[in-house]
Amino acid sequence: xxxxxASRTGWNTIVALSLIPLSGFAMDVYIPSLxxxxxxxxxxxxxxxxxxxxxxxxxxxxxxxxGGLIDTYGRYWxxxxxxxxxxxxxFMIAWTNNLQLIYxxxxxxxxxxxxxxxxxxxxxxxxxxxxxxxxxxxxxxxSGPLPPL
Length: 149
Description:
This protein is mainly alpha-helical and about 150 residues long. It is about 75% helix and about 0% strand.
């Protein structure tokens, strides 16, 4: 298993805090495009809204499974591969005209974002304890500035 050296803890903390909100970002950036997607794909708004449902369900269910997997296989490689896969899936969604492919890619995004979020949250438990852990876990829901590392 890969260990984080003390000199890299600060950078890993910054990267983790920037990746944890990815699930909200994946929704917030996507929602304004829904009306245009329905028009360009010649489908109903309900069919496009199903992509949101698929993302949320796959993200939620995946979190139940991912914890055990990252404890078994580590946090680094699953997280790194997930960042790559979610990026590729996002570009494919932007360029495809196939609604069924968009459905599948939104499920892939949900699963990979869950892997990223769970592994980064677990990283804090590995690196910090006591008051420091409380401080950083409180930032998961905060949008304020980062404290000094």
